[in-house]
Amino acid sequence: MEQFIWAVNLIGTVAFAASGALTGLKKGMDLFGVCILGLVTAVGGGVIRDLILGLTPPMAFQDPTSALVALAVSAVLFLSRVRRLVMHNPERSNHLLFWMDAWGLGAFTVIGVQLAYDTVAEPTLFLLVFVAVVTGVGGGVLRDQLAGDMPYIFVKHVYASASLAGALLCAGLWPYLGSMWAMLLGLAVVVLIRGLAAHFRWNLPRGSE
Questions:
Q1: What beta strand segments (E) does 35-122 contain?
Q2: Do 198 and 129 contact (CB within 8 A), yes or no?
Q3: Which of 15, 61, 134, 154 could be bridged to 104 by S-S, CB 3.0 to 4.6 A?
Q4: What's the Rg (C-alpha) of the chain?
Q5: pTM summary value
Q6: Phi and psi at residue 114, to the nearest 5°
Q7: How far apart are CA 30 and CA 28, in angstroms?
Q8: Omega before 57 within 30 of 0, i.e. cis
């Protein structure tokens, strides 16, 4: 089980680091900026989650593995052909950014549920879901703020709602299917909802409508 959780966390870290780095490349940032944006996106939600759960210092500072992976992914994307792709083919780069963000959101949402279960003796459903969603969307919010954009969760296709659905499913199935299947299904639901929302252009009602 530890290897499974490690793998899911790695998927989330790589995916969110890539989404942060791609955002930095789109903004024309230098190597330092791209790496910082990738790092913040990958570990930001986890830091907020750990502070909520009373885990201090946050795990990202106790074990720098995730931070180092995020920095490495960001640097590789900056130095590879991806930078050229962002400059000359924005449609493909946006597509890549979308799917990296979707996988990162799904992975970190279920990691949030898992850590809440491990940390709190008798967690309530509200705590599990709240921690999961914060873990999933926190890094993206910090990324968008640093990049000078309106946070993605407020203006784009169904986003936080996808994380919420995945968190509810994961937490609800946990006692019946066990942690692994609950996490896999929760992750899959988040990615599926994000994909369907983008394809069918689903959005929640806006205040200007």
A1: none
A2: no
A3: 15
A4: 16
A5: 0.89
A6: -60, -45
A7: 7
A8: yes
Separation CA 157–CA 161 (nearest Å)? 9
Left (φ > 0), alpha (ψ -120 to 50) or beta: where does 148 sit?
A: left
Q: How many residues belong to the chain?
A: 209
Among residues 84, 177, 180, 100, the alpha carbon closest in space to that of 140 is found at: 100
Instruction: Please list, in sequence order, all residues whose beta carbon lies within 8 angstroms of the beta carbon of residue 203, skipping any fewer than 6 positions away.
Output: 156, 157, 158, 197
N- to C-terminal Cα distance for the chain? Answer: 47
Residue bearing tokens 């597509």: 95
| Residue 2 and residue 42 in contact, taking contact as beta carbons nearer than 8 Å | no
Each of the 209 residues of the chain gets a pLDDT tens digit; together they read: 788 999 999 999 999 999 899 899 888 899 999 999 999 999 999 999 999 999 989 999 999 999 999 999 999 988 887 667 666 677 777 788 888 889 999 999 999 999 999 999 888 999 999 999 999 999 989 999 998 888 877 766 678 889 999 999 999 999 999 999 999 999 999 999 999 988 787 776 665 55
Q: What angle do CA 53, 156, 12 make, to 5 degrees?
A: 45
